[in-house]
């Protein structure tokens, strides 16, 4: 492979904001695997956000990229899985499998798509120093004949339309809007874009904790919600605390610590078969590897309010943010019914925008 921009390349990143800033170019924020795509003739490489190769996990995309991309180019995009009329990140996770035979099967049964939103090089020319507006024109021209599963991400400079996208596109599984300066060059690894994500709140049961790696203070709180059968399901964690608050939380929760998990709703968390029926902390997966999955059980008597962006099935998609304790709420009142569901929106309309 001999391209004007060579792997590995760290993608340009975004920093969070509460509102969409004016005077920008706006795109939907896709919920998938960020990927830098390198093509030089028959050679195609997919690089992850950290620079590790993703190519072997998506053989069907390699063929599609050969068929739809210019002979020599480098582009930035997102690998996604479409299930029905929305994105499905949990299914996408299952595509990362060590067995080649399983990879081939998954490629046939749950094929991936690529949504391209930036062009870093074309033919013999690097576009890293070109302004975004110029790169966008080059991208749409280079992929003007591309067909599914390769798509060009919709973009607009209309702030009102971007606000509509923010409200509507979530129903198709997207999780916000990205804003970029039209004059912005491509700056690998730097947080020079802006992302605005949805934020909601939920009242959750605090049913356990994990100590911080630095010592005997709280690293994360394990959160639960009761389902329709009265079972407490593990739905995620909140983990972003200043060190002083981590110390205070450990002391505050000490009276709730249990000597063992006996009698706890997640008492059988260590049995792999138990995770098939209920969601509990410590579920083994290829992502955890040899990581210590142990946790400290707490009597499920405290309720806290957390902020979250969106759900992935029956759990929080990302780490939540602690907002406050809710002494006025009983743990048994914390169920899934309180969670807001976005209005469904057809993903085909997003890609056609």
Rg over alpha carbons: 22 Å
**Helix content estimate:** 10-25%
From the N-terminal CA to the C-terminal CA, the straight-line distance is 34 Å
Largest sheet: 6 strands, mixed
Q: Quickly count the helices.
A: 7
Range of strand content: 25-35%
User: Structural class, from secondary structure content?
Assistant: alpha+beta
Overall geometry: globular
Catalytic activity: ATP + (deoxyribonucleotide)n-3'-hydroxyl + 5'-phospho-(deoxyribonucleotide)m = (deoxyribonucleotide)n+m + AMP + diphosphate
GO molecular function: ATP binding; DNA ligase (ATP) activity
Domain ATP-dependent DNA ligase family profile: 105-247
Family: Belongs to the ATP-dependent DNA ligase family.
Folded structure, characterized:
- By secondary structure, this protein is of the alpha+beta class.
- The protein is about 20% helix and about 35% strand.
- It folds into two domains: about 15-200, 2-Layer Sandwich (D-amino Acid Aminotransferase, Chain A, domain 1); about 200-340, Beta Barrel (OB fold (Dihydrolipoamide Acetyltransferase, E2P)).
- It has seven helices and 20 strands.
- The longest helix has 11 residues, at about 130-140.
- The model has no long low-confidence stretch (mean pLDDT about 90).
- Keywords: Ligase.
- It catalyses: ATP + (deoxyribonucleotide)n-3'-hydroxyl + 5'-phospho-(deoxyribonucleotide)m = (deoxyribonucleotide)n+m + AMP + diphosphate.
- It is an enzyme of class 6 (ligase).
């Amino acid at each position: 492979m001999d391209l004007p921009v060579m792997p590995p390349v760290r993608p340009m990143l975004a920093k969070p904001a509460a509102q969409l800033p004016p005077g920008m170019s706006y795109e939907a924020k896709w919920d998938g695997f960020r990927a830098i795509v390198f093509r030089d003739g028959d050679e195609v490489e997919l690089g992850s956000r950290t620079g590790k190769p993703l190519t072997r996990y998506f053989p069907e995309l390699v063929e599609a990229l050969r068929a739809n991309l210019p002979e020599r180019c480098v582009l930035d995009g997102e690998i996604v899985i479409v299930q029905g009329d929305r994105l499905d990140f949990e299914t996408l996770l299952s595509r990362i499998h060590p067995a080649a035979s399983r990879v081939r099967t998954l490629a046939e049964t749950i094929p991936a798509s690529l949504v391209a939103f930036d062009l870093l090089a074309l033919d013999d020319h690097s576009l890293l120093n070109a302004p975004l507006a110029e790169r966008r024109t080059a991208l749409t021209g280079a992929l003007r004949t591309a067909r599914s599963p390769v798509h060009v991400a919709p973009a607009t400079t209309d702030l009102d339309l971007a606000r509509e996208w923010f409200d509507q596109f979530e129903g198709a599984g997207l999780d916000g809007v990205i804003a970029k300066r039209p004059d912005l060059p491509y700056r690998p690894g730097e947080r020079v874009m802006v992302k605005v994500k949805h934020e909601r709140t939920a009242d959750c049961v605090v049913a356990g904790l994990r100590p911080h790696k630095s010592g005997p203070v709280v690293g994360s709180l394990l959160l639960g919600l009761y389902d329709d059968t009265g079972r407490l399901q593990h739905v995620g964690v909140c983990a972003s605390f200043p060190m002083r608050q981590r110390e205070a939380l450990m002391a505050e929760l000490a009276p709730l610590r249990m000597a063992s998990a006996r009698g706890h709703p997640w008492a059988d968390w260590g049995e792999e078969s138990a995770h098939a029926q209920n969601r509990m902390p410590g579920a083994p997966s290829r992502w955890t590897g040899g990581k210590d999955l142990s946790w400290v059980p707490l009597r499920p008597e405290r309720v806290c309010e957390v902020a979250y962006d969106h759900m992935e099935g029956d759990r929080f998609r990302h780490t939540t943010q602690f907002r406050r304790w809710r002494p006025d709420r009983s743990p048994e009142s914390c169920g899934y019914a309180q969670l807001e569901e976005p209005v469904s929106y057809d993903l085909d309309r997003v890609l056609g925008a």
